[in-house]
Design a protein that fits this description.
Length: about 550
């Protein structure tokens, strides 16, 4: 029978310690609901009392199947647990579980806290006992445990035993500095268990400063730890924490973990993993990491012709899992390295069936290679490639024609005397012989200018007549600019990522010496692709 392994998410607390990250209360609520739907066992909501946002979150915390957990620290020396106002703020969050961080490294006890080891041990025991006496589940984060164990194993174990003896459900071994390698983690966890601390009471909390946080967590699990802590997309202080979007599918799909352990995440929920990962990036206004394991846009991208040919015969030749299992998709990029295997596969993915030997295949390849010489890149712009192929196949619908456009950027003083910029775009299109003129400025909710490309996008999307309903749920996600060729022959390549209400995401490319023209080309492709796909779907 498989052993139960518990997943503890700390995105809302440790993830928020990432440089440049500060969640709003509404954002934390949204993330918590997504985590609960995914199936994690614990959601660490933050440190109540440390900042207004965390306190507000616990006041509005959703009802979850997962155990909502408040984070804080053990009581301070010289103050009873009952009278420590910092600990009281954590208790007042009203969560069923409370995680307290405390020192387990002699150096930190004596140098950072300036107290004796005996005093620190007492602080741990009395704090945990106070939580348990209130009928709450207590967790103890043994901060700097691995460094402490290597320097003074007896005291590191003493700190953990004190928490357990006081009633802690979990003692979490923390690699706080992230410098302990997986082999060391596995060995030390095994030694801790051999010293009498049960594995089913042990958790693991790793940081990614050596790019081994996931591997270290897996090593701890194989050594006997039964709780794993981490964050979505590996958020966290410095280099981040163990990445749950990697750990979860590995534990659920890969031997020996899938054979030995049961986790709270169901296979059906796993199919939403990419969506959850992208949701977090959207909240943070970050571009998703393309090379991220399992969830990255390039995780199942096969560029080489040899690979694509094999994939057509059996996807297992170059894929370790079915991408749909985690909600991802297979991509056969088009580039100047492409062969007909890549081409036919990519066309089939777009719903375009072309027989082997069709002369159109050669024309499409030639056009791709010619345009990439001019600066285009279809490797990262699959939607633009599809439109190109449709043109060669005579299957490109012209829903509208662009007649003209103009964009202006004005710098002026506002009513307060501050210099501000304002972008305005005018776009004229013809649909069924009727010309439609649209004008748009580019401002966000605070009235700040979002630039000429955004103005063009808004004007183009403002009124497309009978096609307007199809593009209302479409929004620009990312905008990338690269100058190619250099010198006086330099051209600008723009790649735009868009997303719609169905969760579809697509990329288009435009190239021109003029960045506005390149942007407009990519925007037009984005809209045309969306209209075609919606029309095909009925």
């Amino acid at each position: 029978m498989a052993e139960r392994l518990y997943l503890y998410d700390t995105t809302l607390r440790d993830g928020q310690q990432t440089q440049g990250v500060q969640f709003s209360t509404a954002e934390k609520l949204r993330i918590a609901e997504a985590l609960d739907a995914l199936g994690v066992d614990y959601i660490e909501g933050g440190w109540p009392g440390a900042n207004p946002t965390d306190s507000a979150f616990f006041e509005a915390a959703p009802k979850t199947r997962a155990r909502m957990t408040a984070f804080g620290m053990t009581k301070r020396a010289g103050i009873s647990a009952e009278n420590d106002d910092v600990l009281a703020a954590v208790m007042n969050a009203g969560t069923g579980s409370i995680c307290l961080v405390g020192k387990s490294h002699t150096y930190h006890v004596e140098a950072a806290l300036g107290i004796s080891k005996a005093e620190n041990t007492e602080n741990i025991a009395r704090s945990v006992a106070h939580i348990v006496a209130q009928g709450r589940e207590a967790l103890f984060d043994a901060e700097h445990f691995f460094d402490g164990y290597k320097s003074d194993p007896d005291y590191a174990l003493e700190a953990c035993r004190a928490a357990l003896a006081a009633g802690a459900r979990w003692v979490v071994l923390c690699d706080t500095n992230g410098g302990t390698l997986p082999e060391e983690i596995g060995r030390i966890v095994a030694e801790v268990i051999a010293a009498g601390i049960p594995g089913d009471r042990l958790g693991i909390h790793t940081h990614n400063d050596t790019e081994t946080a996931v591997a270290g967590s897996l090593a701890a699990v194989m050594a006997g730890a039964r709780q794993v802590q981490g964050t979505l997309n590996g958020l966290g202080e410095r280099c981040g924490n163990a990445n749950l979007t990697t750990l979860i599918p590995t534990l659920l799909l890969k031997a020996p973990y899938a054979d030995l352990f049961e986790i709270g995440v169901e296979r059906a929920a796993l199919s939403g993993l990419v969506r959850v990962s992208r949701m977090l990036d959207e909240i943070l206004n970050r571009v998703p990491m393309r090379q991220a394991a399992y969830v990255g846009a390039s995780a199942f991208a096969h560029k080489a012709g040899l690979h694509a040919s094999a994939i057509l015969k059996d996807p297992a030749t170059y894929e370790h899992i079915d991408p749909e299992v985690v909600g991802n998709t297979r991509i056969i990029p088009m580039s100047n390295q492409a062969g007909q295997s890549n081409l036919r596969t990519r066309l089939a993915d777009a719903g375009l069936a072309v027989e082997r030997g069709d002369p159109a295949l050669g024309r499409i390849l030639d056009r791709v290679k010619s345009r990439e010489t001019d600066g285009y890149s279809y490797d990262g712009a699959q939607a633009s490639f599809e439109l190109l192929a449709r043109e060669e196949l005579g299957q490109a619908r012209r829903f509208f024609e662009l007649d003209r456009y103009r964009v202006t950027v004005e710098r002026r003083r506002n009513a307060l005397g501050s210099i501000v910029s304002a972008s305005e775009a005018v776009v004229a299109v013809t649909i069924d012989g009727e010309q439609i003129l649209s004008v748009s400025e580019s401002h966000d909710e605070e009235g700040n200018d979002r630039g000429p490309v955004n103005a063009l996008s808004q004007a183009l999307k403002r009124d497309l007549g009978k096609y307007q309903a199809s593009i209302d749920d479409m929004h620009l996600v990312d905008f990338k600019v690269r100058i190619t060729q250099g010198g006086t022959e330099a051209v600008t390549r723009v790649i735009i990522d868009c997303e719609d209400g169905k969760g579809r995401r697509w990329s288009t490319v435009g190239v021109s010496p003029n960045i506005v023209d390149a942007s407009m080309e990519a925007l037009l492709d984005a809209i045309r692709w969306k209209l075609i796909r919606d029309a095909d779907a009925g």
